[in-house]
Design goal:
By secondary structure, the protein is mainly α. The chain has one domain. It has 14 helices and no strands.
Length: 300
């Protein structure tokens, strides 16, 4: 079967983007692994305080799904853990996902405007997390191990060397990204091949104010892996979406997907998840509509 010239051109552009995304992904994974290896939790030998260590680690691990949680994500309703995380953590995690290293680097390869919108949404979510108090009970603090317990643990298990820790973290990061990256690029290719150009333009093109409101629905099937959602965003841009619709897709795809929503439901409950979805959806759509009204172009 011979592909139409326009579809072939779009697939070539996605292939070119994948060649750009590959080195960006490797660089981001290496960056995260180096910092995580250099900042073991509880280390007192580092220059920065433990509080900043925790903030940095939360930022670097913002895109992680709860270990072992994938098995229960597709049950309805999702299995709720014994201890839920705070609502504030949910907002902060959303902000970390928006400006994760891979997400920022991949957006920068397309347009600086996209990075600006990511930073704007992240700052807004951080501000919301401090304005609204937590309404979910925090988990009980872990007991601090005694000196004897620490000595026994150190005697049983020798600490890993830095290079060994770096290698293990790098492999783990790459493994976590492999399947979501393939799946999200495959989904972008399907959109490129099977959805006609006129359909995208008639719903999300220039002059359609409702485009930024509806486009988050296209990202519900994406798998959570920060930065890989950009493949579908690129496919939509080259299919003719307006700048506002493209920005709305960029901001909502990492935060609003079936897997991400189920994960948030597990951790913070249904009400907090609905609040986050509505706020992110309205903020992204509102920003997209404003960009379209003022005729701002991303020049992707």
């Amino acid at each position: 079967m011979r592909l139409p010239p326009d579809v072939l051109a779009l697939l070539i552009k996605i292939k070119d983007y994948f060649l750009i995304f590959g080195p960006v992904l490797v660089a981001a994974i290496t960056f995260r692994a180096i910092l995580l290896a250099s900042l073991p939790p509880g280390s007192k030998a580092k220059a920065i305080s433990q509080k900043w260590q925790k903030v940095l680690i939360l930022y670097l691990k913002g895109g992680k799904v709860v270990p072992g949680g994938l098995k229960s994500l597709f049950r309805f309703p999702p299995v709720i853990p014994a201890q839920r995380s705070s609502t504030k953590n949910l907002w902060l995690k959303a902000s970390y996902l928006t400006i994760a290293p891979t997400a920022l680097l991949t957006a920068l390869t397309l347009s600086p405007l996209l990075v600006f919108t990511q930073m704007s949404l992240a700052l807004t979510l951080i501000l919301i997390s401090f304005i609204f108090p937590d309404r979910v009970a925090l988990p009980e603090p872990e007991k601090t191990p005694t000196t004897k317990t620490v000595k026994k643990t150190q005697a049983k298990k020798s600490p890993q060397k830095w290079l060994e820790r770096l290698r293990n973290l790098w492999v783990a990061e790459l493994d976590a990204y492999s399947w979501p990256t393939f799946y999200n690029f495959f989904l972008a290719a399907l959109v490129t091949i099977f959805i006609p150009l006129r359909v995208i333009e008639s719903w999300f093109g220039i002059g359609h104010w409702y485009g930024p409101l509806l486009i988050p629905l296209l990202g519900l099937l994406l798998l959570p892996a920060s930065g890989t959602e950009m493949a579908l965003v690129l496919a939509l841009f080259v299919k003719g979406v307006s700048t506002g619709s493209g920005v709305a897709a960029l901001l909502t795809f990492p935060l609003i997907s079936f897997v991400r929503l189920a994960n948030n439901w597990q951790l913070s409950g249904l009400k907090s998840t609905i609040k986050l979805v509505l706020v992110v959806w309205l903020l992204a759509a509102g920003l997209g509509i404003l960009l379209d009204i003022f005729g701002v172009e991303a020049n992707v």
